[in-house]
Amino acid sequence: MDYDAIAEYIKRNNIRRILVQAPDGLKPLYLCIHRVLSGRAELYYSSSPTYGACDLALNEARRLRAEVILHIGHTEYPFLHIKPEIPVLYIPAYYRWTPSKKLMDDLADHLKSLNAQNIGLVASIQHTHSLEQLAEELEKRGFNPIIGSKPYRVADRGQIIGCDYTSAIAIEDFVDVFLVLAGGKFHAIGLALSMSEKKVLGLDPYTGKIWDAQGEARRILAKRYYIVTSLANKGFSSVGVVIGLKPGQYRPRIVHIIEEYAKKKSICVYKIVSEELTEDRLIAIDNALALDIYVVTSCPRLALDDLEGFYKPVLTPAEYVMLFTKDYTYRYPW
Length: 334
Ligand code: SF4
Known about the structure:
Layout (H helix, E strand, L loop, with lengths): L2 H10 L4 E5 L7 H9 L4 E4 L12 H7 L3 E5 L15 E4 L9 H13 L4 E6 L7 H10 L3 E4 L18 H4 L7 E5 L4 H9 L4 E6 L4 E4 H22 L3 E7 L7 H13 L3 E7 L4 H11 L3 E4 L17 E2 L1 H9 L9
Parallel strand pairs: 1-2, 1-3, 3-4, 5-6, 5-7, 7-8, 10-11, 10-12, 12-13
Antiparallel strand pairs: 8-9
Helix pairs in contact: 7-8, 8-11
The structure holds iron/sulfur cluster.
The site of iron/sulfur cluster (SF4) has 11 residues, from loops.
């Protein structure tokens, strides 16, 4: 983490009160921040979760009258609809990683078995700094690695986020296989869902596991198509549109599109506002309103991950639109 950049920002802007915010997995960095910054400004640490740069603790900062939010672990979100009135300093946290010879040899064998020569490399923000080294190692083994493009103004080269894969899409035509360097499955599955044909492999730097994200995405798609086609056959007469209030998750234009489609078929729409949508919250709403389906307009992953087992259909906006257009091309994100 670039502690100097933080210290320099505080000094230059004469900052006296800071709200520090980090995803749960990076909250241990609060200890380091405290060691470096205490005495320079009054520090407050957010206990709330944050799942992406879309999710800024603006209400907390407002209440505390913080002069800046120090948002750890993400780069600036490209689709903010609510412009933060409090400055946000985004400080990514990078994981130091050196792939072992054995891991690189296994990876080379795996790629050869797929007959892949041109390898598209992308990563979650914690691992973008390792892409150059990964590319060098692949080159040494006779492959042609291509690091993803720089997706938007402030992001890193090759960076993907759960709802933006433009850095990969920009190089799609030149690669045989994508390799996603990220912990867990979230990012690689997202990329596989947004690509119809390209093979996508995940490489988890924490476990050293190489895995087939395209295969997992196909299983998810099979479930999603089952939900959508069952609904298309059965029909529905009411929909709950979940509107996210996190700064990057408020998407009024999508809400409007959903309402317009519903109007054409005289479907009853309830607009449900949610700061943080969990299964419990949706159960509470469903107990009260008993609607036929729900469409989540906040984070496109909620319907696919957290709420995929909900006892009523919970759709992404793109899945909902399929029900009206009967164009069954899967579109992710959205
Ligand atoms: S995938 Fe969801 S949590 Fe992640 S940046 Fe996008 S909206 Fe935010």
